[in-house]
Write a structure and sequence with these properties.
The complex is a heterodimer. Chain A is mainly alpha-helical. Chain A is built from 15 helices and no strands. In chain A, helix 9 packs antiparallel against helix 12. Chain B is built from 14 helices and no strands. The chains are: A mainly alpha, B mainly alpha.
Chain lengths: 332, 286
């Protein structure tokens, strides 16, 4: 098992190399240059000043050479400096050690994504199981309909509707940012409560996209499993139905779900641009959006790389989860 | 539907599936709206009317007006045209790339297969929405750019499907017979195998339209998709967000249109899938 894990870990490296190479070339070969943005903002900038700036950014070199330089720094975990006027290191923008943990962009996005995964798990799996167990019942039909609607629902639209309902109409929940104006003056408990209140809608919206898919998948996986001989055997030897479902069927039905969860990581990360934009959350998605707008190449590359690493780790975790859940793989 | 012969029970099962029929009708109605948008729109979609700004739905303006007094219903009709053309062209591009790479990979195997599969793995590990976002932001949000970028980032599923079909079909006797008769690779790939693997591709293309419509509307919503004054459901929703406290109709209707479109294509796609799956033909239970 450890051998397999090590092999998988080493496979990540060439994939990651491929991802960064591809992204780097796409980004740098796209028409236009970061200095165009500066010229747009300040038409008085001279061609000489532009050239100097391009030289400073290293943009005068061929793309392949630029990639080499980027790669040499990235293996030392140096993401380079941002092209924006403050010239701060990319890593500082993503993970600012001067700020408390709760305010760091990567932490904010990461924690929302983890929370939404937990929510997906806690809601989708019970729904999937219960509708599979009662296949073709009214309950199954209702959940199937809701799931189908959920598939088609654009999450940003749902976000607007929920903001209208809970934020404006009922005035129950805040609709923007991560903390209230009076956050600093709150007690610790008050701070936790305040943060939780701000997180409800974003976490729900971020989880929503995965909910429909996962519960649907759980249902069909469960339906497949309950037809197997060993489930019939379990029933035949007189086990109570609850035990049959949760001990024998559920565990086996969970296997394909684990893989799916690992594969859902890129979708979740991509979705963070949308929900962070809607709810005004200062996370990685928002930072990414700002960085593409000013063509801040190092920052764009940095965030894409971190996104890719998280995706690959998600896949790896799925593999590990699969092994823990399936004894047949464990012994190999 | 190329490989569906006259004796195939495809139509019989498709007709029985009420949801699939509903999806098919929705898709046709939307297509009609998109094609005839100029004829059925009550107003010019870009007609600014400063006297009727942000009016709620009424008899004159069935879906209300936006912040410039433009008629929302007319803008929604034109939005259908934009969304569907982005959906069709993007899926066309994705299908073409997916079929070619999938066919090469499945037919030739070996190194070709390994390189293409690795490439697919890489594409699947990039947070695609991030990549789409940055490329569109860099090259500018014209409708052609949006179609192309969505297309070239969403072919992986189809490539895998086609590859799997090729793997199983290339060993069939009729293919071996064609080979023995001296048919060229191109002829075998395109005439003998590709045509027979079209059914799953069709399903995934229909479902793909729904996905492309969602991505386009998300991009437009973020402000880097279709640019105003060209109406798109996504950029109308941005107006809805900006006027969320005073104009609910700007948020509700465009979202509903996206929902119905995606739902229609999903139902149709799944309906076709169920009807061409011979394993489901026996089970009459519903």
């Amino acid at each position: 098992m450890t051998g397999y894990l090590i092999k998988r870990l080493f496979e990540i490296i060439p994939t990651l190399f491929g991802i960064t190479l591809l992204s780097f070339f796409i980004i740098h070969l796209a028409p236009g240059k970061p200095t165009d943005v500066l010229t747009e903002m300040n038409p008085k900038i001279t061609p000489e000043a532009r050239e100097r700036l391009e030289k400073l950014y290293g943009l005068d070199k061929p793309v392949i050479q630029q990639y080499g330089i980027w790669l040499k720094r990235i293996v030392k975990l140096d993401f380079g400096e941002s092209f924006s006027t403050d010239r701060r290191p990319v890593i500082e923008k993503i993970w600012d050690t001067k700020q408390p943990l709760l305010e760091r962009r990567l932490f904010i996005t990461f924690s929302i994504n983890i929370l939404s995964m937990v929510v997906i798990f806690l809601i989708a799996i019970p729904i999937g199981i219960s509708s599979a167990v009662r296949q073709y019942s009214l309950y199954d039909k209702i959940t199937t309909t809701i799931v189908f609607l959920g598939f088609a629902m654009p999450s940003f639209w749902l976000a607007l509707l929920l903001m209208m309902l809970f934020g404006i109409h009922l005035d129950w929940l805040p609709i923007s940012g991560l903390k209230s104006m009076n956050y600093e003056s709150l007690s610790i408990l008050g701070k936790i409560f305040d943060r939780a209140e701000h997180l409800i809608l974003p976490v729900f919206i971020s989880a929503f996209g995965g909910l429909a898919g996962l519960s649907r998948f759980m249902r069909s996986s469960m339906l497949e499993v309950v037809r197997q001989d060993y489930v019939t055997t379990a029933r035949a030897k007189g086990l109570p139905e609850n035990k049959v479902i949760y001990r024998h069927a559920f565990r086996n039905a969970l296997l394909p779900i684990i893989t799916l969860l690992g594969l859902s990581v890129p979708g979740l990360i991509g979705g963070s641009v949308i929900f962070e934009n809607i709810f005004g959350i200062p996370g990685m998605g928002q930072l990414f959006f700002m960085s593409v707008m000013i063509r801040d190449y190092p920052l764009v590359m940095g965030i894409l790389t971190i996104g890719a690493i998280l995706t690959l780790l998600g896949n790896l975790m799925a593999d590990i989860g699969y092994m823990i859940a399936d004894p047949r793989i464990r012994t190999k | 539907m190329v490989n569906i012969t006259h004796r195939s029970p495809f139509l019989k099962y498709f007709k029985k599936n009420k949801l699939a029929i509903a999806g098919g009708i929705t898709v046709m109605v939307l297509f009609f709206i998109a094609v005839f948008a100029p004829l059925i729109s009550p107003y010019d979609a870009n007609d600014i009317d400063r006297k009727h700004i942000l009016e709620p739905p009424s008899i004159e303006h069935p879906l209300g007006t936006d912040d410039l007094g433009r008629d929302l219903l007319s803008r929604m009709f034109w939005g259908a045209r934009i969304s569907l053309s982005v959906g069709f062209v993007a899926v066309g591009i994705a299908t073409l790339i997916g079929m070619i790479l999938g066919a090469l990979s499945g037919y030739y195997g070996g190194w070709t297969d390994r390189v293409i599969m690795r490439f697919i793995d890489i594409m699947l590990s990039i947070p695609t929405f991030f990549l789409i976002l940055s490329v569109i932001a860099f090259i500018g949000p014209s409708i052609w750019n949006i179609m192309t970028v969505i297309g070239v980032t969403s072919w992986m599923g189809i490539a895998r499907l086609v590859r799997a079909e090729f793997l199983s079909l290339k060993e069939r006797e009729y293919v071996l017979a064609a080979k023995a008769l001296g048919a060229s690779d191109t002829s075998i790939i395109f005439r003998h195998i590709m045509l027979n693997s079209m059914a799953p591709v069709l399903v995934s293309a229909v479902l793909g339209v729904a996905g492309a419509v969602l991505v386009e509307s998300a991009l437009s919503f973020l402000g880097i998709g279709i640019q105003p004054p060209t109406p798109s459901w996504g950029n109308i929703l941005t107006l809805g967000k900006d006027n969320i406290e005073i104009a609910w109709w700007l948020s509700v209707f465009p979202g509903l249109a996206i929902l119905i479109t995606v739902l229609g294509y999903n139902l149709l796609g799944e309906g076709i899938r169920d009807s061409i799956d011979p394993r489901l033909w026996q089970s009459e239970k519903k």
